[in-house]
């Protein structure tokens, strides 16, 4: 403009005076036009791209000087008339490296300004919009950032706030921003955020100062109201958070006042107020109330570990820049914190909060855990604003004296952060503690205990230098969960994070079965740090640690926890020792003792069962064990080890050193150095074999001394082994002795001597366990078959001398063997003689066998070969010639079987021995004849059988004989699992053949059969029938036999039905029925009925009975039950009661529990028919029987009673009337009747009462009379018919007559018994008494016969006559009117008649 003005002045002359106002108007008009042209030109030029690019370049230069960074600007646009400016893609590069995200970037910046005054250059900012700003801040390890530094420092002294107020910004907006924070050398954290506001209402009002304000600038302010109904904030992939915000605030040039703040996010609500005065020396006040949902906070700002809970706040504070104070309360409800191995959930707590410039204090902290338990705590942090030092110990000059260094260290400590935490824990379970500090699966250790006590944490300076101490006790809760073990104890320990050592001053625990104490230092950080612990443990119940071991992952053989341990403790175990070195490589050293426990060794090379269950291993019981043991990664050692089991004692000491492969690597391998001494005494061979996985019938006592040294792959040493006092497969031996030698990888047995009764085996051998090769040489002689227990038979003795030689070498796969066996002087039952030679040797991988044997005239040859590899292909041939069965049966003392035969045959077998089902064979024997029980039998042709595919096929076989004609054929599996059957037999058999089975058996009759067998050998299925025709069977010692047996047995698969089977026994009829099954074990349900069967047992007793019986049950438990009714009972005069008594009183051995008769139980009820009576020449009785037979057939017992209701008996001419009679069976263990009988008799003028009580083995008779007599007089009266005094007088009279009274008495007794028996049989009653030397009243001796007959119950007639004189006859009739009054009518020998009245009366 200045150039134009100058040109105008030069060209335009000075106007005249009169036209000056016109000239002025023209000038002004021209100026206005010119101004408009200039403004138009500027506006036109400003809208050109060239001007925009120039402005863009200038703006880049200005920004680079202002920020200090490299600036990029994509485009610049402006609207001249509207004063609106737009900058696109503005990027500011800071101090970050190439290829990294720049310091700042904005997609678009839009500015709308207005000119407030042209006179005083002043503008106002109407609107500012920033789209998609990105800020990337890098914080390096040294604390610096990538923020650039301005190249030119600002020279303005005007405060920023004045500048903002001078701009009087009416509207500002920022959209779609992103903030990136990169913490160098730690991790890069990108915190992208997107904020959208729906229904956003922003109102910012500039309020000028009042006109009368003394300080207008101070009174100006911005009043703002921000309200957003739905603010959505999204952090990364987190779920969006919806919030509602309401803010009311005022901004002055030197103060800020937030009058109202309200933030609602889900369940979180925060309200507050704040104010700040004097920006230069700020003084602030703030108050915040409300609650926060940690999950919603975590969705916006990731706080590691926090994942749930509600935080409540009520705090307020005020202060200045250097001094401030905050007070209030804070709390959390259902809080959760999960990070690494720390797990807190459901925590509720509240605390007082105090914060000032010097300290942070959290007091009255009360926390309640969701799993139970309370924690009261407080926390104090002093000097919290001071920076945390990078080193833990101050770096003081080396030359500083000790006192100065100590003082400077104390001053340095006082200025550091000092933190103190104290907590009192109450009722927190061990489960809860483990759940908070350990991985999930370690939560439940199986102990019921509550923790109570104090804990504290302190540090000065860095938290990494913290120390902790605990002093707590454990006690059971009293409410244990299932399977928990109560635990009681105490712990006093501390931890220093600087040293990384847990100092256990005292740890003691007690359970019902265990007690332990621990003290010392445990190195935990670094993990390789050494530890030094002293541990004492005593336990008698490992099951208490079952759940702990399960949690720790102890597992083996498909079992977990205690079941996985190879030990079962029944007694007590203890350990007293130390644990040293690091946790990862501990060294355990101490005294270990245990008693009454089992060691369980896993099974080796044993396939699992079909259901996947591992095969059971071996169990070793140990009475006691002790020793000083050491275990580490490079040493396993045992000193003074001792194991005691029964009489067996093992002493063991030794060490095994790991092979050092490198400086930090060691392993136990073949190069590991070993040294050991073993002494075994009185060890049982079966136990040792069981440890080796063998179950062989070998016994004996082992003693061993051995010493080994060297490496596992190259052993050296030796020892001695001796075995005595045992047996091999039931054959006793004396001793076995051998020297042992260990050389390299070979174990040798030298100078082996094995002594057997009459025999001796010597030899040497060895085994190389690396090459798996062996060598053996043995010879034996003097072995007599007569000394072999299995061959000993007193009835059929066997003898013979055996000698052998054997040697071999090689491997199991490629052996080289030679052996020869010779049996000489073979003698069988002193009737059959022979010999045998057997040789065997290998040829390559083939074993060749050759054998020859001679038995009397028979010869046997065996030849074969077996491949010792693969499936063991073999081929065997046996040839038999000249076999006569008769000498063999004669040696066996078989009688009744006549055999004259010369049997010859051949048997061949070939195929793989490892696959028996693939074996094939053929057997053929020539025709033979046999005479059984006098019945000749012969085969119609040869006996021929073949073996194919594991099935033995029998060609049709036809056997004929007297009344015998049978045929058989079929097949049977011999090598398959089920052994399938397909057999058929039919024909007829003479039952006389059954007599061969038992010499006491007598049989006859005829049996026809037609039976087919199918199914398997274990579960056969039989079909067909067996028909009996007039079969008779009887045993010699059995009182009854069976005759006229007719009927049918029908087979129906697994069932045998008895159909219409009848027989006759004892003149009565027996009918059998029922069935039997036999596939899954024998089961029988048979019934029998008998009618009028007479049994003559024992001698002198004959009875007749009816019966209904049932036999039911399995072979192991049969029950015979039913009822037997006795219908008739007769006792003969030849019954020997003495023999019955003696047989009952004999003591018998208990029966064999496995005997079939002991598995047949009895439950038979024996009763008598109504009014059962029995009589003979001596007695006539009536009564009833009620007995129950129990027990087994081998050992039966009888319970019940027999009652004799009435009866009379006559002995020696004296008649006895039964008063009462009972026989009881009360002994459940044996048949032992208890007798209680009482009978009366009238002899002369005396009434005699005889009693009999006691058992059959011990009878006790009692005698008494009326009138009373001594027992001697009663005996004389019953035996001789006179008292002792009368007998003496009568004997004198007989002596005068020359008669032997004793002989006459014996003779008279014998005659009376015989004659009375005959008279009773002829005439049906009465008694006869013969007196050979009767002395009459005249003194003459003569024979006299007296006949007495009871004509009625109360009347008796007696007739007596002398043999020498029939005139001397006595006739007497007696009638008993009452018991004590009777009338006698007598005609004596002299013919005198008399009538007598007898009155009996007893005087006391």
Automatic annotation (TrEMBL):
A Pfam match: TamB
InterPro entries noted in UniProt: TamB_C
Membrane topology: Single-pass membrane protein
Region ranges (Disordered): 1-21
Main location: membrane
Stretches that traverse the bilayer: 27-46
One GO cellular component term noted in the UniProt record for this chain: plasma membrane
A biological process from GO: protein secretion
Translocation and assembly module TamB C-terminal domain ranges (all copies): 1061-1400
The keyword Magnesium is annotated on this UniProt entry: no
Keyword set includes Mitochondrion: no
UniProt keyword list: Membrane, Transmembrane, Transmembrane helix
UniProt subcellular location: Membrane
Name the UniProt record assigns to this protein: Translocation/assembly module TamB
Protein species of origin: Silvibacterium dinghuense
């Amino acid at each position: 403009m200045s150039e134009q003005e100058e040109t105008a002045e030069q060209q335009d002359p000075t106007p005249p005076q009169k036209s000056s106002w016109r000239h002025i108007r023209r000038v002004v008009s021209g100026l206005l036009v010119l101004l408009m042209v200039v403004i138009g030109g500027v506006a036109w030029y400003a809208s050109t791209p060239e001007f925009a690019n120039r402005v863009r370049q200038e703006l880049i230069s200005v920004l680079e000087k202002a920020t200090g960074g490299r600036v990029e600007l994509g485009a610049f646009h402006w609207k001249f008339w509207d004063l609106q400016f737009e900058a696109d893609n503005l990027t500011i590069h800071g101090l970050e490296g190439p290829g990294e995200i720049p310091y700042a970037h904005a997609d678009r910046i839009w500015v709308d300004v207005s000119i407030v005054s042209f006179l005083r250059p002043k503008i106002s900012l109407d609107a500012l919009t920033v789209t998609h700003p990105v800020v990337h801040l890098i914080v390096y390890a040294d604390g610096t950032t990538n923020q650039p530094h301005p190249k030119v420092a600002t020279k303005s002294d005007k405060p920023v706030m004045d500048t903002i107020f001078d701009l009087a910004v009416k509207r500002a907006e920022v959209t779609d921003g992103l903030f990136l924070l990169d913490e160098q050398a730690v991790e890069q954290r990108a915190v992208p955020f997107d904020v959208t506001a729906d229904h956003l209402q922003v109102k910012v009002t500039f309020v000028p100062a009042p006109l009368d304000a003394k300080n207008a600038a101070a009174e100006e302010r911005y009043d703002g109201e921000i309200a957003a109904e739905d603010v959505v904030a999204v952090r990364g992939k987190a779920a969006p958070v919806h919030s509602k915000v309401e803010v009311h605030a005022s901004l002055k040039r030197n103060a800020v006042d937030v009058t109202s703040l309200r933030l609602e996010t889900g369940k979180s609500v925060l309200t507050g107020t704040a104010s700040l005065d004097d920006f230069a020396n700020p003084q602030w006040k703030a108050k915040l109330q409300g609650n926060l949902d940690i999950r919603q906070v975590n969705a916006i700002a990731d706080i590691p570990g926090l994942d749930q809970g509600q935080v409540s706040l009520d705090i307020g504070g005020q202060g200045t820049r250097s001094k401030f104070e905050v007070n209030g309360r804070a709390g959390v409800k259902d809080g959760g914190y999960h990070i690494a191995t720390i797990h807190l959930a459901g925590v509720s707590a509240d605390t007082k909060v105090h914060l000032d410039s010097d300290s942070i204090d959290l007091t009255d902290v009360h926390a309640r855990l969701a799993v139970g338990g309370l924690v009261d705590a407080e926390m104090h942090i002093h000097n919290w604003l001071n920076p945390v030092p990078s080193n833990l110990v101050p770096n003081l000059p080396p030359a500083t004296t000790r006192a100065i260094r100590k003082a400077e260290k104390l001053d340095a400590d006082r200025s550091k952060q000092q933190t103190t935490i104290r907590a009192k824990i109450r009722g927190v379970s061990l489960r809860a503690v483990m759940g908070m500090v350990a991985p999930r699966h370690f939560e439940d250790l199986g102990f019921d205990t509550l923790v109570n006590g104090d804990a504290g944490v302190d540090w000065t300076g860095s938290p990494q230098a913290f120390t902790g101490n605990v002093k707590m006790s454990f006690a059971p809760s009293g409410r244990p969960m299932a399977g928990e073990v109560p635990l009681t104890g105490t712990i006093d320990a501390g931890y220093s994070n600087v040293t990384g050592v847990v100092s256990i001053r005292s740890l003691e625990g007690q359970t019902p079965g265990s007690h332990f104490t621990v003290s010392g230092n445990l190195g935990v950080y670094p993990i390789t740090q050494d530890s030094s612990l002293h541990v004492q443990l005593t336990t008698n119940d490992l099951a208490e640690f079952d759940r702990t071991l399960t949690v720790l992952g102890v597992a083996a053989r498909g079992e977990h926890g205690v079941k996985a341990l190879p030990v079962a403790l029944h007694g007590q175990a203890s350990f007293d020792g130390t644990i040293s070195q690091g946790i990862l490589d501990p060294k355990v050293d101490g005294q270990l003792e245990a008693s009454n426990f089992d060691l369980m060794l896993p099974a080796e090379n044993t396939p699992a069962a079909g259901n996947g269950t591992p095969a059971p291993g071996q169990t070793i019981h140990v009475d006691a064990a002790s020793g000083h043991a050491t275990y580490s990664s490079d040493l396993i050692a045992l000193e003074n080890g001792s194991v005691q089991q029964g009489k067996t004692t093992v002493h063991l000491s030794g060490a095994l050193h790991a092979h050092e492969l490198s400086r930090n690597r060691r392993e136990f391998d073949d190069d590991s150095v070993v040294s050991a001494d073993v002494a075994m005494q009185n060890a049982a061979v079966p136990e040792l074999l069981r440890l080796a996985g063998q179950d062989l019938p070998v016994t004996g006592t082992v003693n061993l001394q051995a010493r080994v040294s060297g490496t596992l792959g190259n052993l050296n040493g030796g020892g001695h082994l001796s075995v005595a006092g045992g047996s091999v497969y039931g054959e006793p031996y004396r001793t076995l002795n051998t020297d042992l030698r260990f050389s390299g990888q070979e174990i040798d047995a030298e100078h082996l001597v094995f002594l057997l009764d009459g025999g001796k085996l010597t030899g040497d051998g060895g085994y190389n366990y690396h090459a798996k090769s062996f060598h053996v040489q043995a010879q034996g002689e003097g072995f007599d078959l007569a000394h072999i227990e299995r061959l000993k038979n007193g009835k059929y003795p066997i003898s013979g001398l055996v000698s052998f030689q054997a040697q071999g070498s090689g491997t199991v796969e490629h052996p080289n063997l030679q052996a020869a066996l010779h049996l000489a002087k073979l003698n069988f039952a002193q009737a059959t003689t022979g010999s045998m030679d057997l040789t065997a040797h290998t040829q390559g991988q083939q074993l060749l066998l050759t054998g020859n044997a001679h038995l009397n005239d028979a010869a046997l040859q065996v030849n074969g070969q077996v491949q010792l590899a693969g499936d063991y292909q073999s081929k065997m041939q046996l040839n038999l010639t000249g076999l006569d069965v008769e000498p063999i049966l004669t040696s066996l003392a078989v009688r009744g079987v006549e055999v004259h035969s010369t049997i010859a045959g051949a048997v061949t077998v070939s195929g793989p021995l490892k696959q028996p089902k693939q074996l094939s064979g053929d057997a053929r024997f020539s025709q033979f004849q046999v005479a059984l029980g006098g019945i000749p039998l012969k085969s119609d042709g040869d006996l021929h059988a073949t073996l194919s595919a594991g099935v033995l096929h029998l060609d049709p076989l036809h056997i004929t004989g007297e009344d015998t004609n049978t045929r058989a054929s079929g097949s049977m599996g011999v090598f398959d699992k089920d052994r399938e059957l397909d057999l058929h037999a039919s024909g007829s058999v003479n039952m006389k053949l059954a007599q061969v089975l038992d010499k006491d058996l007598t049989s006859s009759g005829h049996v026809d059969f037609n039976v087919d067998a199918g199914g398997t050998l274990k579960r056969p299925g039989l079909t067909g029938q067996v028909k009996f025709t007039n079969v008779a069977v009887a045993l010699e010692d059995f009182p009854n036999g069976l005759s006229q047996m007719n009927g049918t047995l029908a087979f129906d698969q697994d069932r045998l039905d008895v159909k219409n089977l009848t027989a006759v026994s004892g003149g009565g009829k027996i009918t059998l029925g029922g069935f039997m099954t036999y596939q899954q074990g024998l089961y029988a349900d048979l019934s029998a009925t008998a009618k009028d069967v007479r049994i003559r047992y024992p001698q002198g007793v004959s009875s007749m009975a009816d019966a209904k019986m049932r036999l039911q049950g399995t072979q192991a438990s049969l029950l015979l039950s039913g009822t037997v009714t006795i219908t008739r009972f007769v006792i003969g005069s030849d019954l020997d009661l003495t023999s019955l008594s003696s047989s009952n009183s004999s003591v018998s051995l208990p029966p064999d529990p496995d005997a079939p008769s002991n598995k047949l139980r009895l439950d038979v009820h024996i009763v008598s028919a109504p009014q059962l009576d029995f009589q003979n020449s001596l007695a006539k009785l009536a009564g009833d029987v009620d007995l129950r037979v129990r027990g087994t057939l081998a050992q039966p017992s009888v319970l019940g009673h027999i009652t004799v209701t009435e009866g009379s008996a006559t002995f020696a001419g004296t008649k006895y009337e039964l008063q009462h009679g009972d026989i009881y069976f009360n002994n459940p263990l044996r048949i032992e009747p208890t007798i209680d009988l009482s009978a009366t008799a009238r002899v002369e003028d005396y009434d005699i009462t005889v009693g009999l009580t006691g058992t059959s083995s011990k009878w006790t008779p009692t005698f008494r009379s009326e009138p009373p007599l001594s027992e001697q007089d009663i005996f004389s009266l019953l035996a001789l018919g006179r008292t002792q005094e009368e007998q003496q007088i009568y004997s004198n009279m007989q002596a005068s007559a020359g008669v032997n009274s004793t002989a006459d008495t014996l003779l008279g007794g014998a005659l009376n018994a015989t004659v009375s028996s005959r008279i009773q049989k002829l005439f049906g009653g009465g008694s006869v008494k013969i007196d050979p030397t009767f002395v009459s009243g005249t003194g003459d001796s003569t024979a006299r016969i007296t006949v007495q007959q009871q004509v009625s119950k109360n009347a008796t007639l007696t007739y007596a006559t002398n043999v020498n004189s029939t005139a001397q006859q006595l006739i007497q009739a007696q009638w008993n009117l009452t018991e004590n009054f009777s009338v006698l009518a007598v005609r004596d020998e002299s013919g005198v008649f008399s009538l007598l009245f007898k009155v009996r009366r007893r005087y006391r």
